[in-house]
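Batch manifest, entry 17 of 40.
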Amino acid sequence: MNVLGIDFTFFAVSDMQKSLTFYRDMLGIPLACLVHEGTWAEFEINPGTLVLGQGDRFTQPGGGMVALAVKDAKAALEELEQSGIHIHSPLGESAVCFWAIIEDPDGNRVIIHQRKDKTVG
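Output type: structure tokens
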């Protein structure tokens, strides 16, 4: 088997409207579709997709994590703080990146991630 990449990241959520407000309105990620009576949402973030699912057929909320690539992690965090989003882990730095962690309404961790070599994906 040869894994080529990640096609989508899935988070189980408890309240789709709160999650739509967080990802679409607060983080500014365009909603691609909302289907299955509003229990399945897809956000296209090239080169992948973020999927949110609400309901008993999905796993428990709060157990996932995704890293969102940004051009400037420090500026992104300042913007998020001004929007009232709690910063779970402040800006950190490794040999290859800058990163910080926020949480969505269900406690899924969202990494705000900036690679030093400016690549994405």
